[in-house]
Amino acid sequence: MPQEAQPATINAETASPGALLLDFGGRVDRIQPGTAFTIGRTADLSIDENPYIHRRFLEVAERDGIWWLTNVGSALAASVTSADGMAQSWLSPGATMPLVFSATTVLFTAGSTTYEFSLTAQQPFYQMSTSWTSGADARTVAELLSPMQRILLTSLAEPLLRRRAEGSVPLPSTEQVATRLGWAVEKVERRVGALCDKFARLGISGLERSGAGEILSSQRSRLVEHAVGARIVTADDLPLLDAFAV
Asked: According to the lineage, what is the superkingdom (predicted)?
């Protein structure tokens, strides 16, 4: 049974949008309209003791009949996508966005660990008229990535693609990816940089190089979040990685 959230009450002057269900690693919280619910290290949902997570990082609140997600932290950002991967936003510190879809997936990385949870609205503000499938966008993705880029991206995201539920999972280090693919570390770093540059040119936030022209671990994590959230790589790509890495 879902756990009943008991956060602080907010005045609501419009019709109720219905409850919002938050699922993190099998724990389900039912967030009621007129309330606010926080996610962080010491919050309504205490995700982890990871010191890189803010005590209060994200807040879900209902205002004017719409559910909103706000980044109340100071350093971390979150990738927010519709469940089908068609719509994606990057929620930077201080930013807020409406949760208009029936189901929303949130991913963020703190240190070397990536976290994922889902939000499901009982009465969504917006409904997709048609469902998106990977086949519908196969041509676009095929043109976007070369076979080796797809294998590399799948290797970077492998733990997320193999997990069976939302929750937390450590991402592989550059050295682990190099070992998995049989490449030199320098080759992995160079090709990850090229992938970040490609998506940055396409307007994906958070993938720009540092002032020194380097690709930091935060950019690599953001690359994985975008690729998984937008369904650029999926579990269907794992056999290709397994065949290459044998």
From this structure: Bacteria
Please name the residues in contact with 134: beta carbons below 8 A apart, sequence gap of 6 or more.
Answer: 141, 231, 234, 236
Tell whether 126 is covered by a domain.
no
Among residues 96, 121, 146, the one where a domain terminates is 121
- State residue 105 phi and psi, 5-degree precision: -110, 135
Co-location of 112 and 7 in the same domain: yes
129 within domain boundaries:
no
CA dist., res. 139 & res. 180, Å (int): 28
Q: Which domain holds residue 233?
A: 134-245
